[in-house]
User: Fold this.
Amino acid sequence: MDSGKNIQNVVVMRHGDRIDNFEPLWAEKADRPWDPPLVLDGKIRAFCTGKKLNNNLGFPIHRVFVSPFLRCIQTASEAIHALCAVGDCATCMSSADGVSIDPSKIKVKCYFCSCVYIAYLLIH
Assistant:
């Protein structure tokens, strides 16, 4: 039933598996120890989550807001590749598999306030 009201759906997704959870000594050698990247399995899981959202969500995703942390950008990139895939990508496991995309499907914005707020909470 159409009540004439606009409806907005919000999907929240956490970043994938980060390297410092699997290699505890990673931070000691890292240039940016506060900003760990994803491990390959984290990228694969993010891509597969994007495929599941695309196939099962029931509504399209038009915008993605992402934190500037590397792990978040990598997660969003993989999910967006799956959401914007053109053609058959049933056997694809990540964007590294040469997925062709339609970049006009989703607008992406890096949302710096998310990490500023977290930093504020940690300091205070």
Observations:
- The chain has a mean pLDDT of 87.
- Helices lie at 26-29, 40-56, 70-83, 113-123.
